[in-house]
Every structure is written in C-alpha cells, then in structure tokens.
Amino acid sequence: MRIKSAEFVMSNSRVDLCPESKLPEYAFIGRSNVGKSSLINMLTGRKALAKTSARPGKTQLINHFLINKNWHLVDLPGYGYAKVSKSAKRTFQKFITAYFEKRKQMVCAFVLIDSRHEPQPIDMEFMQWLGENNVPFCIIFTKADKMKPKALERNINFYQEKMLESWEEMPEFFISSATSKLGQDEILDYIEAINIELNSSDSPR
Fold first, then answer.
1. Domain 6-199, CATH number (from 2.20.25.10, 3.40.50.1450, 3.40.50.300, 3.40.50.1950)
2. What is the pTM of this model?
3. d(C-alpha 95, C-alpha 13), whole Å
4. Residue 171's closest CA among 128, 114, 142?
5. pLDDT per residue over 36-49, tens digit each?
6. Weakest-pLDDT range from 32-46, 47-61, 104-118, 164-178
C-alpha cells in the first residue's frame, strides 16, 4: 500500500463523538514511550502527523486520522508509566475500554511492544483483556534498530515462548523501526489485505 494522503480528523475522549463514518479503523496502542507516534509518522510518511514528545504520555485523547480517504488510523493513549495523575489514568482507561467495546468500525488493534525489553506484565494483561473480549489484534515490536540482530531475535523468541504459555498460537506480529522504516511495507500491506477482504465481503453477490 502507498500512502497518498493522511489527514487529521478529530480528537476526543468520548467514543460516541468519534467519526460517524463506516470506514474501517486500525487502532495503535502501547505502553507509554514505546515509540507509537514515531511509528505512525513512519508508516504514513508524514514527519509530524502524530506529535512526538520526550515526555511519555503525550497522547491523551482518541485521535482519528483519515488515510487514503478510505480508512482511519486511530492513535490511542499509551498505558502505564505516563506522568499523569491517577484520576487521569482512570479516565484514559475508561475511554480506551469503551472504544474497544463499542467501536464497531475497529477491525484490528496494533499493540506496540518495545523489542528491547522482556515481556512486561502490563502488556501481557492488556493483550489478555483483548483476547477475552474478542478484540482482533496484532503485535508490533518497535525500536528494532536499537538492538543487534541476534539479541533482537532472542528477545522476540522469548516473547513468543511467553505468549504461548497462555495462548494457543502467537498473534500475527511485525518487527519495526521508525528510524530505518523496517516493517513499513509489511504493516501497510497487512492493512490493505484486510481492507480488500472487507470490500469484497461488502460487494453484492
């Protein structure tokens, strides 16, 4: 898939105020400081579509971006370690949960995982919640350029082993780097394949 256009649509903290469009949505979410904004900018080829910050927890709303006029990329607040108050964290959790439970346009969530670290309980618990609530998701391992190839492979393999302790099979996953653009084509092609399948299923028979 080639990204020909990417434009900001709206930000809000209420699911009922999200765009009324029936276009498919792909949500990006992860622990704070996982490199989500940089990844979104890399995928779309726009340097400042999603605002990056040295301060974790910058994203605090549901942000919709219209991509190629035919699907929405949704940037959700990070979870964990954000330097915000406990009440703010509860608010984030409330509308993140509501988004996944109520937003029927959401066809796939991309859970971002920092490839440099061993499996974190907060990530495992969040993916467990997605599974229990039948929310389709994939994993994107970020910051792959920060590691040597063998160390990266070892970390990914360990993560797979940990996941398979409680999952029947490993979810679809991608390895990415916002710096080298590793994973850009694979992730966008995956989204395109889903869009084609959705359009085919909507076609009259």
1. 3.40.50.300
2. 0.90
3. 6
4. 128
5. 999 999 999 988 78
6. 47-61
Using the Cα atoms of residue 154, residue 29, residue 31 and residue 53 in order, give the sign of their dihedral: positive
The 3-state secondary structure of 133-154 reads: CCCCEEEEEECHHHCCHHHHHH
CA atoms within 13 A on the CB side of 149: 1
Residue 192's pLDDT is what? 97
Burial of 133 (0-12, 13-18, 19+ CB in 10 A): exposed
Task: Show the tokens assigned to 56.
Answer: 């974790």
Q: How far apart are CA 82 and CA 141, in angstroms?
A: 20
Q: Could you tell me the residue ranges of all domains in the chain? A: 6-199
